[in-house]
Amino acid sequence: MNKETVLLGMSGGMDSACAVSLLRADGYEVIGSVLAMHGYSDTAGALDAASALGINITTVNCAADFTREVCGPFCREYSLGRTPNPCIICNERVKFAKLLEEADRLGIEKIATGHYAGIERLENGRYCVIKAKDEKKDQSYMLWRLSQETLARTVFPLYTHIKTDLREGARKMGLAAADKPESQEICFIPDGNYAAYIENALGRTFPEGDICDEAGNIVGRHKGLIRYTVGQRKGIGAYGKPMFVKRIDAEKNRLILGVSGEEYDSTLEADGLVFSGAEPFEGELCCEVKLRYRAPAVPCTVRVEKGVARVALDSPARAITPGQSAVFYKDGRILFGGFIR
Question: Would residue 128 show up in a list of annotated catalytic residues for this protein?
Answer without folding.
Answer: no
